[in-house]
């Protein structure tokens, strides 16, 4: 019983995974999707990001979208924050295997959007 309650809670979660087009980021996207989490896969390279989304969608659910972001570009990060806020209104999970600087930029942008 407790397990199904946990799964119900996680199904309503929104996650952003940076560098989700390859390696550990890709696998994290796959695992989160398998748990019913809505995943925003991000990558610098739009073509590679979209290819990863198509590959993941073909083997799993459709709880996945792509958004291009360059984590060292504040405007790009701001665009990601705006996308998350306008489409989902919240962010529950941030997986950032690429660089810690993104966490700071997202925090600042979220503070400014309040």
Strand ordering within the main sheet:
3-2-1-4
What's the end-to-end separation, in Å?
Answer: 37 Å
Give the biggest beta sheet.
4 strands, parallel
Q: Summarize the amount of helix as a percent range.
A: 55-70%
Radius of gyration: 14 Å
What are the low-pLDDT stretches, counting only 5+ consecutive residues below 50? Answer: none
Based on Cα principal axes, name the global outline. Answer: globular
Assembly form of the protein: single chain
Secondary structural class:
alpha/beta
Total of DSSP H or I helical runs spanning 4+ residues: 5
Q: Mean pLDDT across all residues, rounded?
A: 82
User: What is the H-and-E element order?
Assistant: HEHEHEHEH
Q: How many extended strands?
A: 4
How much of the sequence lies in strands comes to 15-25%
Describe this protein with a few key phrases.
oxidoreductase, 4 strands, 114 residues, 16% strand, NADP, globular, alpha/beta, 4-stranded parallel sheet
Compact summary:
Belongs to the short-chain dehydrogenases/reductases (SDR) family. Helix content is 56%, strand content 16%.
Please tell me about this protein's structure.
The protein is built from 5 helices and 4 strands; from the N terminus they run αβαβαβαβα. By secondary structure, it is of the alpha/beta class. Helix 4 crosses helix 5 (101-113). A 4-stranded parallel β-sheet has the order 3-2-1-4, with helices on both faces. The protein has helices at 2-11, 23-34, 46-59, 74-88, 101-113, and strands at 14-17, 38-43, 64-68, 93-95. Helix content is 56%, strand content 16%. The chain starts with a helix and ends with a helix.
């Amino acid at each position: 019983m407790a397990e199904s309650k946990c799964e119900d809670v996680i199904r309503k979660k929104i996650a952003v995974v940076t560098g989700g087009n390859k390696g550990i980021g890709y696998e994290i996207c796959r695992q989160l999707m398998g748990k019913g989490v809505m995943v925003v896969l991000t990558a610098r390279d739009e073509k590679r990001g979209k290819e990863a989304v198509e590959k993941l969608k073909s083997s799993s659910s459709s709880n996945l979208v792509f958004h291009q972001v360059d984590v060292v570009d504040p405007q790009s990060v701001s665009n990601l924050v705006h996308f998350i806020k306008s489409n989902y209104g919240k962010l529950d999970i941030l997986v950032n295997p690429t660089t810690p600087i993104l966490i700071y930029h997202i925090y600042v942008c979220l503070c400014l959007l309040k």
